[in-house]
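Thought: the user wants the 3D structure for the chain below. I'll pass the sequence to the structure tool as-is, report back what it returns, then summarize two notable features.
Action: structure_tool
Action Input:
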Amino acid sequence: MASRDVEDLSKDVLDKAKLVQRVMSEVGIDLLIYCTLRSLEEQARLYRQSRSWATIRSKILDLRDSGHGYLAQVLEEVGPCSGPHVTNAAPGESWHNYAEAWDAVPLIGGKPAWNYFDAKEQWEAYGECVRQSGMFWAGDWTNFREYPHAQLRLGNNPLSELSPDESRQSLTDIGLLKT
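Observation:
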């Protein structure tokens, strides 16, 4: 399951999320943070959507081969999932799993302004607030822009930043893995 509660973010990221919300409010833009901490099972379900079994199996093997068998097990055990393509990140490959990312959307008249081009001024204000808070805004990415997404670290895949032991410990500390 994914959380909407900013209190589920790590302390440093929580402080930055509150700062972004406050500054956005001060400039007259309501902001809804709708995804913070995401469970490994939810990440696995989202990843499995729209993917063939061959692709999923390949990812499971890659995770095992890189020392992340505990993540491969989660991906395998959630079972078949259907739906639209949502993410390129398997379990453990999203900063949401480490409480270091959130997704947000500006509200116009109390309604989410999902389309960047229909609310470019509000989205750009959000991006500027994210950058000024010391976070990275995925609206700045060149290969795949994800306007709602903000994260603490620059790298797009935690498993390329953390060793298998560091990843496992972080996920255990957050409560997403049992010891």
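Final Answer: Structure generated. The first strand starts at residue 30 and ends at 35. Strands lie at 30-35, 101-108, 111-112, 136-137, 149-151.
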